[in-house]
């Protein structure tokens, strides 16, 4: 199983699964509203709160897609699970986090 650019997930048997996780129009609108809001205002704090909720929804959708891929792997639909990440700095280690996530040790986080 491979997370890629052309097809989001490609299984070892050649089947491809495509899913799109774009920024929503609501997220874009909230970002514009935040840019226009006065610093320190009550409206800015409200927009920041709404932005956090919207980013959390997007993050949950991504986690769901990863969980579905891992479920396919565990159901023996694919014999391999390939994930990649960035390990450019010592304090930013996507590679090992993804490895632990695939092993199931981070699945409940």
Please explain how this structure is put together:
By secondary structure, the protein is mainly alpha-helical. The protein has helices at 25-36, 42-74, 94-103, and strands at residues 2-3, 9-10, 16-17. A 3-stranded antiparallel beta sheet has the order 1-2-3, with no helix packed on it. Helix 1 (25-36) runs antiparallel to helix 2. The longest helix has 33 residues, at 42-74. It is elongated, with a radius of gyration of 18 Å. The protein starts with a strand and ends in a 6-residue tail after the last helix.
Chain-wise SSE layout:
Elements: E1 2-3, E2 9-10, E3 16-17, H1 25-36, H2 42-74, H3 94-103
Antiparallel strand pairs: 1-2, 2-3
Helix pairs in contact: 1-2
Strand order within the widest beta sheet: 1-2-3
Largest sheet: 3 strands, antiparallel
What is the average per-residue confidence, as pLDDT, rounded to a whole number?
76
Which term fits the overall shape?
A: elongated
Instruction: Determine the number of helices (DSSP H or I, runs of at least 4 residues).
Output: 3
Number of domains: 1
Specify the structural class: mainly alpha
Low-pLDDT segments, ≥5 res? none
Distance between the termini: 22 Å
Order of helices and strands: EEEHHH
User: What does the radius of gyration come to?
Assistant: 18 Å
Measured as a percent range, the helix fraction is: 40-55%
